[in-house]
Amino acid sequence: MDRGFAETGNGRILAGMARNCRMIFFTGLPASGKSFFLRALISMAGTAGRRVHLMRWDAGLASFQTDEILARYPDVADGSHPIVRMAAGLWGRKAVARWRDMHPDHAELLVGEVPIVGNRFSELVKVLPDAVEAALASQKTAFVYPVPTSEMRAKLEALRRETFANPRHPDEAKDAPPATMELAWRLTCAKSIELGLVQAAEGETTPAYDAALYRRFFDRLLRHRNARALDVDMFYASSGSAHNIQGGVSEIFATPGEVEEAIAAIEAVMDPDAAARAVENWYRM
Fold first, then answer.
1. I need a labelling partner for 8 at 20 to 30 A (CA). Which of 16, 55, 68, 262 fits?
2. Is 132 domain-assigned?
3. Residue 143, strand partner residues
4. Of 213, 195, 35, which Cα lies nearest the Cα of 115?
């Protein structure tokens, strides 16, 4: 990790988390800097002697995108099928519980990437009556989201378009495409209005990126969690792709059995229409 970043305010915040937290989840809009900060945190945790376990939405979802499941539940306009999204979220919450049970030593650290918007691991920020809720709500668990300035947001969006078109790392090709990036902002604006966080603007046009609105919305989503915003007003020196994760990190994936169990559990309580309604209400925490 570049030494210059470690000496910034955000670097010091992450370094403290790398030493003290048991679980750290990065969330926020696409093209806000999540991957860079996640990579930086993992590097700092390694320096602090922590053993890092990684759980990412895209990697977790991939286990649910088998030919057999996609034949039953094909992708929809805004991403994976609601049944699949709900099942992946159910698995994610159970995976956190299993990790806690299997790794009680403080030297073990779980780092996650939790997009939330559009029901992508949003289950991790909902208050649910299960054994892992206390751990998710603990001060030893941090939910971190970067908040770029308008100028930085424009630069990060341009960078996302560039890396998506010309990926330097296989995972960059799996990043949210520009259309999904734009959809996430439209959803942020629309759901902020529904929650009464902002007044509806005249006309149908989605307003330009607004850091204050973004912060207000994610503060609302994360109100039941130990949440921390990172103000981003500059590019940090970095080498290579933000997706280049150092060796020695153990990534968590769903096993075929866990996938079948999660799909069956969702099918047992809702049909596709009910799942679509649940996914539509992902922001109601």
1. 55
2. yes
3. 25, 227
4. 35
Q: Is residue 283 situated within a structural domain?
A: no
Number of domains within the chain: 1
pLDDT digits (tens, 9 = 90+) for 96-116: 999 999 999 999 999 999 999
CATH number for the domain harbouring residue 129: 3.40.50
- Mean pLDDT value of segment 205-226: 94
User: Is the residue at 120 inside a domain?
Assistant: yes
According to DSSP, the β-strands at 141-148 and 250-251 are unpaired
Residue 92 has pLDDT above 50, yes or no: yes
pLDDT (average), residues 76-97 = 97
The arithmetic mean of pLDDT across residues 237-243, rounded, is: 52
The mean-pLDDT minimum among 128-132, 176-180, 212-216, 243-247 falls in: 243-247
Encoding tokens for residue 213?
């609105």
Q: Confirm whether 14 is domain-assigned.
A: yes
Report the SS3 class of residue 147.
strand
Nearest to 113 by CA among 188, 46, 53, 199: 53
Contacts of residue 210, defined as CB under 8 A and 6 or more positions apart, other chains included, come to 150
pTM comes to 0.91
Domain ranges, residue 94: 5-149+217-277
CA atoms 174, 178, 179, 184: torsion sign: positive
Q: How far apart are CA 37 and CA 236, in angstroms?
A: 10
Cα 207 from Cα 180, distance rounded (Å)? 16
